[in-house]
Task: inverse folding
């Protein structure tokens, strides 16, 4: 029984370390990057280059080069892309009204 308990305890400690490092190295920078994008990049600029009316090829190239600054993890990409899509959807809803 002590072997099973030591395996479970080791697994939980490993999980704790992973979560702690993952939050510090991925999630915190992702929130800062997403907040910085919303605060410092004008909505019109984002819509011009990544919006619905933008050229798809140009949008893809810009997104590919901009992704260099984003950690390659789905949790960071979701935060950054959600801030961009929120801007695009807000502009789209205004144009439909």
Result:
């Amino acid at each position: 029984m002590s072997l099973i308990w030591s395996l479970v305890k080791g697994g939980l400690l490993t999980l704790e370390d992973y979560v702690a490092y993952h939050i510090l190295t991925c999630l915190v920078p992702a929130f800062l990057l997403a907040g910085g994008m919303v605060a410092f990049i004008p909505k019109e600029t984002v819509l011009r280059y990544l919006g619905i009316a933008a050229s798809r090829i140009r949008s893809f190239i810009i997104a590919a080069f901009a992704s260099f600054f984003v950690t390659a993890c789905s949790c960071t990409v979701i935060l950054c892309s959600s801030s961009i899509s929120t801007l695009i959807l807000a502009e789209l809803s205004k144009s439909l009204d």
The mean pLDDT is 78.
